[in-house]
Amino acid sequence: QMPGTARHDREMAIQAKRNLSKTTDPVERLRLQCLARGSAGIKGLGRVFRIMDDDNSRTLDFKEFVKGLNDYAMMIDKEEAQEIFRIFDKDGSGTIDFDEFLVTLRPPMSKARKEIIMQAFRKLDKTGDGVITIEDLRGVYNAKHHPKYQNGDWTEDQVFRAFLDNFDSPYDKDGKVTTEEFMNYYAGVSASIDTDVYFIVMMKNAWKL
Questions:
Q1: Could you read off the pLDDT of 60-84 as tens digits, one per residue?
Q2: pLDDT tens per residue across span 94-129
Q3: Whether 100 and 143 share a structural domain
Q4: Mean pLDDT of the chain
Q5: Total structural domains in the chain?
Q6: How far is CA 117 from CA 81, 89, 149, 194, in A?
Q7: Helix segments in the chain, DSSP class H
Q8: Domain limits at 165?
Q9: Per residue in 133-158, pLDDT tens?
Q10: Nearest by Cα to 140 from 107, 174, 164, 165
Q11: Which residues have CB under 8 Å from 195's CB, separation 6+?
């Protein structure tokens, strides 16, 4: 696990729960309900939608949307769900594109934060193909310090895999981390950190940038 990440995750979840009682904006409420589950909360909802998207259209109609929210145990009444759906169904087609949905749901980040996240991504993506894999990590991340490697439980590859799983979509772990997944993960972490300066310092320390 990355330095400080678990702690930020907890702080963020607590903060999200606290803010839930204060906000009336339906999109913000949905965002906070996801964040209350930690950094992977938004990704998890995306995963639920993907499972329901039987025809691989990457879109959802209202019925599927509500079913997805229910499957993910989101506390939302029908009126609120309708309101959210309308906001995301920009062209009024009766369907929403769930990539767009997830990007809108992701907590907004400043340009400075996005840049430092991309810097970390590029450092990890040794091959420069836009995806971080175990191969990439061999050159950047030392598995030998990991306690499970030291006590013989895990091989080097298992350490790398566990590391990638932090950033990977929760139920769809393929050992590959895309820019999108990396950004989603840090959008969650970013939500718990008030200032850009602190966020940037944290990223620089964590990734030795």
A1: 899 989 988 888 888 888 899 999 9
A2: 998 877 787 788 878 899 999 999 999 999 998 899
A3: no
A4: 84
A5: 2
A6: 32, 29, 27, 16
A7: 5-20, 26-35, 41-52, 62-71, 78-88, 98-105, 111-124, 134-138, 147-150, 156-167, 179-191, 196-207
A8: 111-207
A9: 988 888 777 888 888 899 999 999 99
A10: 164
A11: none
